Amino acid sequence: MLCEKCHRERDDDNGSYYQLCYGFTEKSARDIWWANTREITTTYKLKDREGVWICDPCVNLRYNLATIGAWLVLLPLIALVLGFVIALIRDPVSPPSSFGFWCFSCCTSGMLIIFPIWLLIWVRGSRTELGENLALSLRKKSMKRIYDFVMTASRYARLGHGL
Ligand SMILES: [Zn+2]
Question: What is the tens place of the pLDDT at every residue in 82-98?
């Protein structure tokens, strides 16, 4: 198979099809007399779906960049809170404000343990979505000229459309 991202010929099992949904939108207006306002609803009329074949190395590269990006945001935050906690242990703030400070530092530390775990799970879980986003970036420009909307299959499913 030919990867549409790097244009290299790869083995069939060294990549996947990533689905895009495209079609037209229909806007309908409904007057809400009691609120003196108008509600506009956008309906997505699916024309078809398209699979874009992208090789695993291309998706992995994007995935690693996302993971590194996540850690680049997290590390300064962790360092900041660690510095704060160490400073607090060395030189406890005199009462009564110390209790509030301890609560604050405990909450922040707890969040900083949960947040990276959540972020890494999210990055790992969204490998398909990373591939779909790559596919979208490849096709968006040309397809937007013809259709009202082009979006990843995951996003289309999230809008409440079963696939
Ligand atoms: Zn590729």
Answer: 887 787 777 766 555 66
